[in-house]
Predict the structure.
Amino acid sequence: MQIRISWPAGHTTATIEETPTSKALAGVLPITSTARSWGEEVYFDTPVSTALEADARQVVEPGTVAFWTEGDALALPYGPTPVSRGDECRLASRCNVLGRLDGDPRVLATVRDGDPVRVELVTD
């Protein structure tokens, strides 16, 4: 499955694996939310509420599409956060990993706190 994430200054797409969380997310798309930033991470609320999956992780690669179960939010890290050690992407807590952004994750640096964000399924 592929999703498109859009904000006023740009957009990106992501390839999402089939997981219980990604299925729940797909079921509510499209959504519009408000971007928040935390270091070099963009996150935003979703109407999805789900449990941690067995392979949930706190340290991920830049460009990982993660679901923060404690905040019912998509988390998109592209660099260090306030809790990172060195240059790693360390999320606030363990998150469900859904997939990866297609292309350079640094495009997320153009997202501003408070920007409207739209997430939708990409259809052929």
User: Anything to note?
Assistant: The longest helix spans residues 20-26. The radius of gyration is 13 Å. The CA atoms of residues 67 and 74 lie 5 Å apart.
